Amino acid sequence: MTEQENELRAGAGSGRGDDANAPRIRLRDRDAELRSVEAAVERLCLGFAAGGTEIGDLLTFSGRPGIGKTSLLHEVRRIAKLREKATVLFARGGERQFKEPYHVLRQLLQHVLGDLEPDVFRQVMGTWEEVVGPAMGLKQPKAGARRLDPQGVRDGLDYVLAQLAPRRAPMVMIVDDLHWADGESLSWLTKFAIRSSELPVLLVFAFREDENDWPAETQEFRRSVLELKGRKHELNRLTLSSVTDMIRAELGDKAEDAFCYEFWNVVNGNPFEAIALLDQVRDQELEPVEENSRQLHELAVDATGMTLKSWLDRLGASTLRFAWACAMLGTDIRVDLATRISTQSTEGARESIKRLRKQRVLTQSPNGNLEFVHPLIASSIYNTMPDATRLGMHGIAAAEIENAGLGLLAASRHLVETHSGEGDDRIVRKLRRAAIEHQLIGAPEAAQRCLKRALNEPPADEIKTEVLYELGCSALLTNPVATVNQLKLALFSPEDLPLRPELRVDATFRLSEVLAHAGELGQAAVVCQEEAEVTVDPAGRQRLQAASFMWHAFRKSEEDGPGRSARLGVMCRSLRGREAADRAVLAMRAWDLTLRGASSTEALALADEVLDSGRLPKGLGWTDTTWGFELPSMLCLTYIYNDRIAQAERLAADAIIQFEIAGWSGAHRGFAYFLMGLARFRRGLLAEAEDFLRRAYRISQRMGDKLPLAWDAIGVLVDTLIARGRVDEAWTMANDFGFHPPYHPTAMVLPDAASLYGKLLVAKDRYAGAAAALTEAGAQLEVRGWRNTVWAPWAGHLAIAIARDEPERARDYAQRAVRDARDFGTASAIGSALRLQARIEDARAAVELLEDAVTYLGQSPAGYEHAVALVDLGAALRRVGRLDDAQEYLYQGIELAQHCSAEGLVDRARRELANYGLRPNRLGLRDFRETIETLSSAEWEVAKRAVQGVPAQRIAEELGVPVGLVNRRLAAVYRKAGSGPDGLASALGLPQQQRDAGWPEDLDD
Ligand SMILES: Nc1ncnc2c1ncn2[C@@H]1O[C@H](COP(=O)(O)OP(=O)(O)O)[C@@H](O)[C@H]1O
Ligand SMILES: [Mg+2]
To answer: Which of 274, 416, 448, 930 is buried deepest, with most CB atoms within 10 A?
Structure first.
């Protein structure tokens, strides 16, 4: 057989080789599969040409090794590439490479992303450049970058693909040998495959189904792959007549039927085995006649069951060594590397390659790299390596790969396979560095493999605990249990091998963090407290003390709340500087004061001292690891509850963006969504709140069952649904989740769970249950000294629940709530408390209270509370017969409620109007002054010019903004004015030809 045929049979080509022009083999018995491919490609291209975008599809080919999967994929590539506009991406897993993070995805995406024009690249990457870029090997992690959360990389990839696919559509993404894909790639691919139908992408996978062919590490993904829905093809063995054809094509028509039949049986219709056996038959010059069929069995064993001896016989020692070096490297093998790893001369290597090609072991791809003819051969060669040789050669491979400038990431796969027990410091250093690099590309598991191997080396005694500490930190974002164990090991190692003091503080803080995130807040606080007591360095001690305060504050209950608060106050007053650690204490105190319902002014003053011109200071940023995200969260919560919602929203928006950029997609991003949801809820933007909170909840679900974050999100979500008038839905949601006493066992739910639950019961008219829950809530909070009526509005709602049966007690509670709210002092707290008190008073008293409430709430950002107060006031006025006033407040209430998406409140107000013969909607036209008030100054600038008949393009030039923006602003003007270009002047009260109008005050004259 010639070398060209050899190539041709192998369906040659590396992962990247462009094989559209490669010679084709005739695929037998694959007509149905090929039709399916043609049809899928056709559907994709037609669908896209017809303007479709949600037209993705999934094709899978599975079957035993050698059955013809790769050959079929080559056909897929060829067919797809015939389509002019199609983008065809290809990658394959490698048996030796399944531990290389993102090995498969990098093959798939690196080129297509790297080839984008710079501005398109930026659009496609969005905010994910620093996440997806390093993971895909497109760029180095930025200096000072932090560890990436693999979930962040996956989220980033989702975004990038959603951007890329339409730009490069129709797109065909092909992955061969998926069973050997690395875990990082698989975990994204399996999820992407489920949603690929939403994009103009045809995904094509080929893999072995047998679980023995999947590495233990990726078994869970095998199940996901098998469960995927799509067009699945399990490849059948070739038919007798096809194999007979193959035999006769090779050996001539003299091959007898009986021989062919036996041949077919022996190879079981497997084309790879058929070709191997044919080689043997020809080499042995076996006559293809019936009498010889019995020898086929033996030959087949020789053909496929290759032992060390048979390879040695076939290749000779030095060529086999070269083959081993190739096997070590996996797929897409660089000749120079293989040469050096096999320690051969260039000349020797050339000889080896020649021999290996002749023996149909290797082929050479168009890019000059080598490739095994079939992975079965690669496996067979690798597995014949004696243990000592293998370990030694991996060591050489690691060194050579590093020398070749391919970096530690690439070398580390070999380093972890080398011989341990030597105690080589250099290896330990390299492995630790490789671990860091892995974390920077979002591959903590690979980092852990490096660190575990480093521990086995073993490292010198004095750094063993450091490695343990690093191992603990490496799982911080993904595996809390492992983190806890490893950090404990590092911290509580034998006395003669203590962790360095600087690291001790950090390790303790990390440990407490993980414990806290798992809900073990009491433990977290104790760990910090105990370590603080033995920490000499003042800064370290302060950090741990503060951390212990922080964890106590997040506990569901604590023994000595007021005591802790007092101690925190003392600590706060004793601060001298304004370092990050000092500001951290201020932030904690601000939050503490807020929860206690102490003076809002004081809390805000402290919070403002934490910030640096409105921004988080250095060292206390969202992704700063010294303090963790709890600290800025406390600050954000402080602003939310002290009516400075805009400031809180700025912080929360920063959090979302920074966690995205850092790729921290787990609890961090979830909590940022929660904060934003809570802020929007307090502001009364209920639809947006609902959306953010649902996202937070989804993320928390992904992280684990009923984590504290889930409680937070569900609580506020229930509150939001009540506000929107969807009480039954709120009730179902709370019940499905189990949002009722005793709540989360250890962590405090934000805001107060018991108050929320009582409020829900009141909304469901279950007054007795509400009374019990709220009384209990009040008692608990009293012990703790927490009296914030917005955070925990138990008293006001309790008053409503018991008003009928115990009017006196109800009045006490309602008044107490108002008193507490006044002590706290924010407009929204006072207004809301007054509004609740009005609910239990007679109409005349209610009117007075509500008039006050409306005034207060009108000065606060609490839009929804304001809307409720307006409607309540309207209703109360109606009851005392002041119909005109009632109507006006109800109209205002409706308008605001609509703005808040509080549909239930809108209905209530309309019913109120309709039931008493009033119009449920305003009739009168709005005055143009009201319209102008709703225009932003930018919109006003555009409107003035439009009225003068200036075309959009000129307006854009005059204002120095893009014309697209002018058009968008104009659209807003038309909508708000309720008029198109023609009537705009009169809708705005402007003369048609006015030349030089100023901002509204000019209108007064
Ligand atoms: N349908 C077919 N008809 C003829 N030869 C085939 C067919 N499918 C595969 N082959 C040959 O069998 C060998 C193994 O095929 P390959 O596609 O590499 O299998 P797999 O990827 O399933 O392990 C290759 O040499 C290929 O040329
Ligand atoms: Mg294959």
So the answer is: 274
- In angstroms, the CA 842 to CA 765 distance is 20
Interval between CA 425 and ligand 2 midpoint (Å):
41
Q: Give the closest residue to 670 by CA, choosing from 700, 712, 691.
A: 700
Q: How far is residue 306 CA from its own chain's centroid?
A: 46
Tokens 């080499």 locate to 283
Q: Which ligand is nearest to the CA of 94?
A: 2
Q: What angle do CA 836, 840, 843 make, to 5 degrees?
A: 105
DSSP string, 677-705: HHHHHHHT-HHHHHHHHHHHHHHHHHH-S
pLDDT-derived band of residue 559, with 50, 70 and 90 as boundaries? confident
- Residue 621 and residue 847 in contact, taking contact as beta carbons nearer than 8 Å: no
CA of residue 132 to ligand 2 center, whole Å: 29
Ligand 1 center to residue 69 CA distance, Å? 7
Query: 245, 247, 272: which to mutate for ligand 1, most atoms within 8 A of CB?
Result: 272
In short, whether 9's Cβ falls inside 6 Å of ligand 1 is: yes
Angle at which helices 183-195 and 444-456 pack, to 10 degrees? 160
Q: Is any atom of ligand 1 closer than 6 Å to the C-beta of 28?
A: yes
Q: Is the CB of 442 under 6 A from ligand 1?
A: no
First-to-last alpha carbon distance for the chain, in angstroms, is 100
pLDDT at 113 over 90: yes
451-477 burial, b at 16+ Cβ within 10 Å, e below that, comes to: bbbbbebbbeeebbbbbbbbbbbbbbb
Residue 538 CB partners (closer than 8 Å, separation 6+): none
- In contact, 865 and 895? CB cutoff 8 Å: no
Nearest Cα residue to atom 9 of ligand 1: 68
Q: Which amino acid is at 493?
A: S
- Of the chain, the percentage scoring pLDDT greater than 70 comes to 95
What pTM value is reported for the model? Answer: 0.79
* Gap between the Cα atoms of 191 and 289, Å rounded: 53
Which among 71, 240, 245, 248 is the best mutation to test ligand 1's pocket, defined by most ligand atoms within 8 Å of the CB? Answer: 71
Q: Is 647 exposed, middle or buried (0-12, 13-18, 19+ CB in 10 A)?
A: buried
Q: Is the CB of 411 under 6 A from ligand 1?
A: no
Distance from the alpha carbon of residue 280 to the mean position of ligand 2, in angstroms: 22
Residues 173-226: tens digit of each pLDDT: 999 999 999 999 999 999 999 988 999 999 999 999 999 999 999 999 999 999
Ligand nearest to the CA of 176: 2
- Assign 999 a pLDDT band (cuts: 50, 70, 90): very low
Per-residue pLDDT at 278: 94
Ligand 1 touching residue 10 (CB < 6 A):
yes
Separation in Å, CA 911 to CA 523, 720, 922: 53, 22, 14
Interval 629-675: pLDDT, tens: 999 999 999 999 999 999 999 999 999 998 988 888 888 899 999 99
Residues whose Cβ atom is located within 5 A of ion ligand 2: 69-70
27 within ligand 1 shell (Cβ under 6 A): yes
602 with 824: CB under 8 angstroms?
no
Q: Is residue 478 in contact with ligand 1, taking CB distance under 6 Å?
A: no
User: Residue 665 has what pLDDT?
Assistant: 83
Task: Give me the pLDDT at residue 500, please.
Answer: 87
Which of ligand 1's atoms lies nearest the C-alpha of 208?
Answer: 22
User: How far is Cα 778 from Cα 792, in angstroms, rounded to an integer?
Assistant: 9
Percentage, residues of the chain above pLDDT 90: 76
> What is the pLDDT confidence band of residue 808, given thresholds at 50, 70 and 90?
very high
Ligand 1 centroid – CA 268 distance (Å)? 14
CA 739 to centroid of ligand 1, rounded, Å: 58
Residue linked to tokens 């199940």? 223
Report which of 283, 279, 348 is spatially closest to residue 316, judged by C-alpha positions: 348
